[in-house]
Amino acid sequence: MENFKFYNRGQVLFGIIFTIVIVSLISGGLYYYLEKKMPKMPEIIEKPVGEKTSTPPPETSEGELTEEEKIIPEKEPSEVHEPEVPCQSECSQTGLKKCSNNGYQTCGNYDEDNCSEWSSIINCPSNNICQDGKCIQRECADGTSYSQCSTTKPKYCNNGSLINKCSACGCPSGQQCQGDESCIVSSFNFNLSVNPASGSTTQGGTISTAVNATLSSGIPQSVTFSASNLPASTSASFNPSSCIPSCSSIMTITTSSTTPTGTYPITITVGSKETIYNLTVTGGITSLLLNPGFENGSGNMPTSWQKDYWSVTRSTWNWISDGSTVKSGMGAAKITSSQPNDAAWLQNVSVDPYSSYLFKGWIKAENVTLADPPNGFSTGANLSVHLSLNRSPGIWGTQNWTEESLFFCSIASSSVKVAARIGYNWSLTTGTVYFDDISLEKLDPPFIGQKTVLCFLPEHRSILTNPSGWLQKLDAAYSALQDLTGQIPYDGNKVVTQEVVSYPGGELIAGNPTLWYTNYVPNTLQQVNNYNYLGFGQVHELSHAFDFYGSHYAGNGPINPEHWANFKLTYVADILSATYPTATFSHPTQGFIPIGDFPYEYFVVRYAQPWIDSGRTDWQNMSNDVYTGLLYLLKEDIGWEPFKQTFRDYASVGSPPATDLEKVELFAHLLSANAGVDVTPYFQGWGFPILPP
């Protein structure tokens, strides 16, 4: 029984297995059949961006093998290109725009797949919103942008609504801002001020100030300027006389020589308002000029002035009488030099002999340019005096009214010519200049001696502690030079030494007056105080005044005029040393030494003796200081008398010799005759190839 059960169970198991096998075979065969007979459906794969779509293979009729079904032995199967699903457009119309947040997007093909997509968001600018795919500026009804002031004050665009906001947008002219931000029409008002509020002038002078009317409220109206409570013999004018605030007017106050001195509160009235200007009038300085402000004249000529020029055709002279270009008043003088020239307005003025004066005035310059190469006489527009090389510093280029001044001293003459000038001696200039308010006033007198005069700037007068003591020595030097040469220069007039501000061409320039450059004056005056300094430069230039018949004995090289001035100075030193033994000259290595020692220590020891010791005979290369020392050594042998007579003899000599050597020979022959001994061997030994008398 047990075996039967087992048998039956085996049969059942076998049947199950058999059935599974049969079903599997049938299923496999059916699958194979269907796979061959039915086309394979392509797999839908999402295409990468930018990938090209391949074309699917053509369909075949039922029962016909496709190219894919044909089996080709020993060849690798080709790549299968699956058909691609067409793209789906995200937007329908290229160029169509839509709003997104506070920006817009545009429809278009941005990846070359023939499908249209939306672009990224393009944000709208500030104060704009997106509307129908466009950025629209947010505006109020009148076109004013959000958060901006309207052109119609005091309106303000506040989130689409126009509101009053005068604190930010202001009010129309003539209206005032209120607390509720609205504007109301205000009454006309202005603030009145004067700047400067005070000033001082001398009797006969003028002064100006600015009067300012500044609009503070209301609709502007014209106002008129006037002044009252003026002192006697004083007038006030306004330019302009009326204006519409905010505006300014220049008040010019003109005093006269009879205006009382003192301080006056002048009332300035402008419309309905008043302010005070404090005027101080001091004692006037009488100008020695006629028509100093060019207020009077006729045609193109101001009264009392005349033209002066290097070339009359290169400049034009004009008298201005309409107040168009003036410093004050209505008149001024003008010169225009279109070509290089030295041109001036000139006036001859009466002065006192040996007196100090200050010549000053106002100059306005336009394009003043030096035509000649720059030199020590380049001056531009200036004030000068036709007395010597003395003038004011000068103005160049284009400058508004500038005051120039010139200090000078008169000589024996009772008149001088003063000039308002463009250009100067050896300084031709182009440009246009205006002159106004010129004056000439007398200052404190200079220091006046018997033969000489010392004239210093006011600020340097007090440096000299004993001016009369120095003048006494300079007078003695003058007398010694007169004794040496037997001559009297400048018709016996005193020789003036005058300090000048502008460089005259050297520290001291000989003449009458002798010009002394101001940069050297203070130190020399202190040396006079501290060392009893006689003044080498002052005596040297004074010696030039005694160069009578100089063309007979002065030439070039060793016999030049500087030699003869120094040789005459050695005589002064010898003579004055007896009276003023402590007076000094400055030696370059020994300091201040007595004037009696100076000629030998300086000219002989430093120059003449080395020449003699070297045995040199090349007289053409001899310095003037060597020759001075050699003559001083000769003086030691024959004394001063032959020299004194020789200088006098030149008065009776005919024409001067033609050459330097002939001048030396003439001098040696005259000196020999006056010494009673032939001195030509001295000159021959020094190198001069001259013949004996």
Kindly report how far apart the N and C termini lie: 197 Å
Q: What is the C-alpha radius of gyration, as a whole number of Å?
A: 56 Å
Helix fraction, binned, reads 10-25%
Can you tell me the residue ranges where pLDDT is under 50 for at least 5 consecutive residues?
1-8, 29-72
CATH topology assignment of the largest domain: Neutral Protease, domain 2
- Estimate nothing, just give the exact number of structural domains: 5
Q: Kindly state the number of beta strands.
A: 37
Classified by CATH, the class of the largest domain is Mainly Alpha
Oligomer: single chain
Report on the biggest sheet: 5 strands, mixed
Provide the β-strand percentage band. 25-35%
Question: How does this model look, in words?
Answer:
Residues 68-79 have a biased composition (Basic and acidic residues). The protein has 693 residues and is α+β, with helices and mostly antiparallel strands. The protein folds into 5 domains: 96-137, no CATH class; 148-185, no CATH class; 189-282, Immunoglobulin-like (Sandwich), CATH 2.60.40.10; 297-443, Galactose-binding domain-like (Jelly Rolls); 461-686, Neutral Protease, domain 2. The strands form 11 sheets. Strands 12-19-18-14-16 form a 5-stranded mixed beta sheet, with no helix packed on it. The N and C termini lie far apart (197 Å).
